[in-house]
Write a structure and sequence with these properties.
134 residues, alpha+beta, 6 strands, 30% strand, Asp23, Asp23/Gls24 family envelope stress response protein
Length: 134
């Protein structure tokens, strides 16, 4: 019998004639850029995920459209400053809601874009009363 030549568990496979070349180091692979508009959309989508946020009427009195939030991005390299305008269901604890939205938006933007959020200002621009139950 011939001895078996199986690699030990957890050992990398042996390089053979058909193995893929090793990838280039990360600093030589190129770069990825994320447009400010993408960061704005990610931030708005993250704000909409909070259960207390409501759609914000557009500046034209709701005639043009409504979105979950409005966002503005200022960037310096890989650092981002966000400013969000949100509407919140009434009644709600406003300070707690703003802090929860800030934390969620910051974490989501950083996770999905790779950018660092150094500030996220939340402005509550409207309170939306709950529908009356008859």
């Amino acid at each position: 019998m011939t001895p078996s030549h199986t690699p030990a568990r957890g050992a990398p496979p042996a390089a053979g004639p058909h193995s893929a070349p090793s990838p280039a180091p990360p600093e030589k692979r190129g770069s990825t850029s994320v447009a400010d508009r993408v960061v704005e959309r990610v931030a708005c989508a993250a704000a909409a995920e909070h259960p207390s946020t409501r759609p914000v009427a557009d500046r034209f009195g709701g005639l043009v459209g409504r979105g979950a939030a409005r966002a503005e991005v200022r960037r310096g390299g890989s650092r981002v400053a966000l400013r969000l305008e949100i509407a919140v269901a009434y009644p709600a604890a406003l300070a707690r809601t703003a802090e929860e939205v800030r934390a969620h938006v910051t974490a989501t933007v950083e996770a999905l874009t790779g950018l660092t959020v150094h500030s996220a200002d939340i402005e509550i621009v409207a309170l939306v009363p709950a529908p009356r139950v008859r």
